[in-house]
Write a structure and sequence with these properties.
Length: 494
């Protein structure tokens, strides 16, 4: 792996920030990967001013859509060529298995390609007029936009914001999570290169790592920032929504989840077992859409959960770099402590830990932030661990009696992000899919994504949509034009 840089990208310049230095750690070994000098509030201001100049630069502002699309295609190419390096960087920074991080890097490339195609085919509309006017609706860039992201899938969530924001003609201030800045910085290097090759202002992208309460806060509050794209926890999202309300700027919020995965008695059981495990334990459960509450029809509950636990015990836990690893370490020791505290709470609340419930033992795991895949039952759906997002490899199994009971329990949290339904009954799948509060429902599959399918959360899981053809529009302002087509006198023309 190339030595990770400690420079950050401020208004087109690669240099150390003037903010606090932060160590980024490989959670598989506890070793320090790099010390990154984060941005200071002054750096954010400099980046925002440079971004505003870049956004207004005629070289960018007047660039025709097919030329902007060419830039996005070039970024896609560079990301694809660097996929192995990006994957290794992300695995080192987050602990995720290499197969997963490689897929995330390739999905980032695909996001830039899809967005380029959507940009090429986006059209402004001439609207039917109700008088002697030509009326039309045009879309314009906002100027400078903020992209604030969490640590769990940086390269993919960065691409989901950067691609539509650049396609829309903006400049972007990207604020990666404090624990995982390296892959966002690596992506920033590739985008800088593409901008240079196209003779475009480098300051169209800044990558500003640092603490959320300092750097994130400075970014979303900066007077030049005209839109906020945020992915992260619900409490942070609420704080950012308050900033957006006060500043009257649009914000999209992709937030937390506590997603139900439902196994009906008529499900294909081997398929459901594999899908439920993948849904919660891939990425060690550190996924907003993790299927963290398992609802099983009471008549098959004991048998299904027994078979599940048997399989979960056999999952291969290890470093993300080891071939065959299915469950890597958690992102950070501090996060492992939070997950462990939730399992302790489950025990206090009367839950039975059926497997896991501890860090794995042995020399190989000693220095890493590992936690065993854990299955718990015996709790009411109202227990705190059934209601709050744990963001770790912890699955709570709950029985249900009939469909009304299932829907009542499944919809009982503040969240509404995703849902999985395992059944052979198509009508039941349809009914349930419509009754569950979730922005995304998977039927006989889980965690499958397509860039052309919009993604959003209901209730406390978010506001606004990412992905899909309309993603570019979310980073633009709509303007209506009226153009007189007759010389009839105006009312006060005298
Ligand atoms: P977080 O909310 O702590 O941080 C997210 C980002 O916001 C980070 O870059 C952080 O530095 C920044 N931030 C923190 N406080 C800020 C403030 N006051 N102003 C501006 N920025 C601030 O989340 P996290 O712990 O990094 O990530 C985990 C959370 O993200 C989970 O809740 C997970 O469900 C959620 N998530 C949601 C989605 C989705 O698409 N719905 C996807 C991935 C993760």
């Amino acid at each position: 792996m190339p030595r990770p840089t400690t420079d950050i990208l401020i208004g087109g310049q690669w240099r150390p920030g003037a903010g606090d230095p932060a160590e980024t750690v490989d959670p598989a070994s506890g070793q320090i990967l790099a010390t990154v000098r984060g941005a200071s509030v002054e750096d954010v201001d400099e980046a925002a001013r440079a971004a505003a100049r870049a956004a207004a630069d005629p070289a960018w502002r007047a660039l025709l859509p097919h030329r902007r699309a060419r830039l996005l295609h070039r970024i896609a190419e560079l990301v694809e060529d660097a996929a192995d390096d990006l994957a290794r960087t992300q695995t080192a920074d987050t602990g995720k298995a290499l197969a997963e991080t490689r897929a995330l890097a390739l999905s980032a490339a695909a996001t830039f390609r899809y967005t380029a195609a959507a940009l090429e085919t986006a059209e402004d509309a001439i609207t039917p007029s109700r008088g002697d006017y030509l009326t039309m609706s045009v879309h314009e860039p906002i100027g400078v936009v903020a992209a604030v992201n969490p640590w769990n899938s940086p390269v993919a969530s960065d691409a989901q914001k950067l691609a539509p924001a650049l396609a829309a003609g903006n400049a972007v201030l990207l604020k990666p999570a404090a624990w995982t800045p390296l892959v966002s910085l690596a992506l920033g290097r590739l985008i800088t290169r593409a901008l240079d090759e196209h003779g475009l202002p480098r300051a169209l992208l800044s990558v500003l790592p640092g603490k959320g309460s300092v750097v994130g806060d400075a970014v979303v509050n900066h007077p030049l920032v005209g839109r906020i794209g945020f992915t992260g926890g619900t409490a942070t999202g609420r704080a950012i929504a308050a900033v957006a309300a006060r500043r009257l700027v649009p914000a999209s919020l992709e937030l937390g989840g506590k997603s139900p995965t439902i196994v009906r008695a008529d499900a294909d059981i081997p398929q459901a077992l594999a899908g439920v495990m993948y849904g919660i334990f891939s990425s060690s459960g550190q996924s907003c859409i993790a299927g963290s509450r398992l609802f099983v029809a009471r008549e098959i509950q004991e048998e299904f959960v027994g078979a599940l636990v048997e399989r979960v015990r056999k999952l291969r836990v290890g470093p993300g770099t080891a071939p065959g690893t299915q469950v890597g370490p958690l992102v950070h020791h501090r996060h492992r402590d939070t997950v462990a505290a939730y399992v302790d709470l489950a025990r206090e609340e009367g839950g039975r830990v059926l497997c896991g419930g501890a860090a794995p033992e042995g020399e190989a795991y000693r220095d890493g932030a590992y936690y065993l895949p854990t299955v718990i039952d015996g709790l009411p759906h109202t227990a705190r661990v059934c209601q709050e997002e744990i963001f770790g490899p912890v699955l709570i199994a709950l029985p249900y009696d009939d469909e009304d009971d299932l829907v009542r329990q499944a919809n009982s949290t503040v969240y509404g992000l995703a849902c999985g339904i395992w059944t052979r009954d198509h009508r039941a799948a349809w009914r349930l899919a419509r009754r569950i509060d979730a922005g995304t429902v998977w039927i006989n599959t889980y965690k499958q994504f397509s860039i052309s399918t919009p993604f959003s959360g209901m209730k406390d899981s978010g506001l606004g949509t990412e992905k899909g053809r309309d993603a570019i529009r979310a980073y633009q302002r709509q303007k209506s034009l009226y153009w007189a087509a007759s010389d009839a006198p105006l009312p006060w023309a005298g």
